[in-house]
Amino acid sequence: MRQPDLALAATTLGEARAVAPGSGDELHLAALIPAELARVAIARGAIEEARRHASAASAAQRAHRCRRCAAEIGPALVETAIAADDLEGADAARAAALESAYRLNLPIAIASMRLAGGRLLAARGDAVGALVDLEAALDTFDRLGPRHLVAETRAAMVGLERLEPESA
User: Fold this and answer.
1) CA-CA distance, 66 to 64, in Å (whole number)?
2) Long-range pairs of 29-32 with CB within 8 A, sequence gap ≥ 24
3) Going by C-beta distance under 8 Å and a sequence separation of 6 or more, which residues neighbour residue 108?
4) Residue-range definition of the domain harbouring residue 31
5) Residue 161 confidence (pLDDT)
């Protein structure tokens, strides 16, 4: 994202946080908004801020025990853990979110977790495993959308070209 886009995203999410209590969906938004703020913070390079937002998202999700929120915030939690070089935390977040996404049969959430999982495997140096996850995510996004995740997944696949395949 460009710097002006990051500022706009942070402002928009801040405004959403302000109106959330009157929306009727405040329990869900209490988890979803901080997850997106974590992504914005990562894009700005503010890893500690991202960790605080991810922690708030996780706490809000646990407070109302919503599997859909667990599935929806999962990619942001994984991305934050990767950015903080906490690959074990990323593994745990990925497993929990994937379980929720599969239990609820949420194909976009599953694909989003495959995208995050591909990034996690790439961070571990497993280009082959990463490519499998990214191709699965791309297949779903190509069929169902959203289009911005098609582009994001393709960009992640291009980034894999720098990695050497693991020896078998």
Assistant:
1) 6
2) 30/60, 30/63, 30/64, 31/57, 31/58, 31/60, 31/61, 31/64, 31/66, 31/69, 31/72, 31/73, 32/57, 32/69, 32/72, 32/73
3) 140, 141, 144, 145, 146, 149
4) 1-93
5) 81
- Grouping H, G, I as helix, E, B as strand and the rest as coil, residue 13 is helix
Residue with token string 């791309």: 138
Residue 101 has pLDDT above 90, yes or no: yes
Nearest C-alpha neighbor of 77 from the set 12, 108, 88, 148: 88
Q: Are residues 130 and 86 in the same domain?
A: no
User: Model confidence at 79, in pLDDT bands (50, 70, 90)?
Assistant: very high
Sorted by sequence, the CB contacts under 8 Å of residue 161 that are 6+ apart come out as: none
The pLDDT, as a whole number, for residue 24 is: 54
* 62 is a domain residue: yes
Query: Does residue 115 sit in the same domain as residue 147?
Result: yes
In the predicted structure, residue 139 carries a pLDDT above the cut 50: yes
Give the span between the Cα atoms of 25 and 78, in whole angstroms.
24
Residues 69 and 30 both lie in one domain: yes
